[in-house]
Amino acid sequence: MEPVVLRRGSTAGADPSAPLVVLLHGRGATEADVIGLADHLPSGPGAPECVALRAPIAEGGGFAWFANAGTGRPLPDSLAASTAWFRAWLDAEAPLDVADPRQVLLVGFSGGATFAGGALLADPARYVGLATLFATLPFDAGVPTTPGHLAGVPVFVAQGDADTVIPPELQRRTWSYLHEDSGADLTAVRTPGGHGLTADVVVALHRWTAAVLQGSLA
Questions:
Q1: How is residue 102 annotated by DSSP?
Q2: Does domain 5-212 have CATH number 3.40.50.1820?
């Protein structure tokens, strides 16, 4: 599938050196469902360009990042294929073979966050950080989740106490790995809400994004 994107931000593609925030939608949704998050991220001089990318697999009137064996459990071959597709798009969007490569930050919701977590775990050095919102990391899906694998990588994780979409055991496993084993530079938020963005999470995400992408406005 040819990549379909929506762009938002002060640069809107005009500044190829601006940091790039890639927004990744949930299962059965589209890029239009997540691009609005860009309005709650840093803006003004030095702010990033935000790009919402459509997932490559058609599903249920929307799109998905991978085939799965149950909610939050990607099939390894499917995750690998989508990751390769994503990397081909990203390497054209933000080339590494330049004197000053763009910073790339991944922000995903639900299935898009599980996919983003897989992309980060597959190549932690490629990204300046990950925000995983109301999701699970893709355990047992062919990407490393060994101790220290994300050493020093900024990660923002948000979970809802009333989230009944992501299996509780995967939420606990994600929370535990990120806090205890990953080595990530972690910012964690728990909210009393369910499977959806809440105001406290959006405010915390804005602050974290500004801190990670130094030079952005807070």
A1: P
A2: yes
